[in-house]
Design brief:
The protein has helices spanning 89-99, 148-157, 164-171, and strands at residues 2-3, 9-10, 16-17, 20-31, 41-43, 46-48, 62-64, 77-79, 84-88, 113-116, 129-132, 137-143, 178-184, 186-188, 193-198, 201-202. By secondary structure, it is an alpha+beta fold. It has one domain (17-202): M1 Pyruvate Kinase, Domain 3 (Beta Barrel).
């Protein structure tokens, strides 16, 4: 921050990234009808309401706080900003390479939307609007921190390897994808275009 002639702080030295659009495609969509099932399975279409995916473990207008929200007592009812999990083909390939495994499947780690062609998906800033050709709009809350539950699902696919659960939590940082909530409901289908409307943003110091 700098100061003007009267000593008031100004933002003249603020580095502002302008708003822009980034285009990609939906590779696959995933869901599970079992609210107790962490893993998802690919499906022909993903139907979304304002509450998310009906029957999904992350569906609902509210959710219970957990380890990701240490500022609340565990189990506190709060707004559900984690209705949808979005990952990218490119980042999953990079994670698999870093872990030295054949592949990391989006369904293993509970993803709902697999994209391709959106560079550095996980680094898209909060408030980004993911606009799908079919009419659905998802609002990004932020990146999805990798955890041992997802790492354990990957480890189960490679029983001859040890420590993959912890390795995923360490190596997948800033590449594990995004969490979002439904701003406009509808249906997402594989093959349709998705446009990330990245808002003007800056680094707060």
């Amino acid at each position: 921050m700098t100061a003007d002639l009267f000593g008031r702080e100004t933002t003249d030295d603020l580095e502002i990234e302008p708003a822009r659009k980034v285009r990609g495609l939906v590779s696959r969509v995933y869901a599970t009808p079992d609210p107790d099932d962490f893993q998802t399975r690919w499906t022909a279409a993903l139907k979304l309401g304002f509450e998310g995916i009906a029957g999904d473990r992350h569906a609902g207008f509210t959710r219970k706080s957990g380890g990701r929200e240490p500022w609340y007592a565990r189990g506190t009812e709060m707004c559900n900003e984690r209705q949808i999990s979005i990952v990218s083909l490119e980042e999953l390939a990079a994670i698999a390479e870093a872990m030295d495994v054949e592949r990391v499947d989006a369904g293993w780690i509970g993803a709902n939307v697999l994209t391709e062609g959106l560079p550095r998906l996980t680094l898209l800033p909060p408030r980004t609007r993911m606009v799908f050709a079919g009419g659905v709009v998802l609002r990004v809350d932020g990146d999805n921190s990798p955890c041992r539950i997802a790492g354990g699902a990957i480890a189960a696919q490679y029983p001859d390897r040890e420590g993959l659960d912890l390795m995923f939590a360490r190596l997948a940082r800033r590449q594990r994808g995004l969490v979002a909530y439904v701003e406009r409901p509808g249906v997402i289908r594989p093959g349709e275009e998705v446009v990330a409307h990245v808002p003007e943003h800056w680094l707060y110091r």
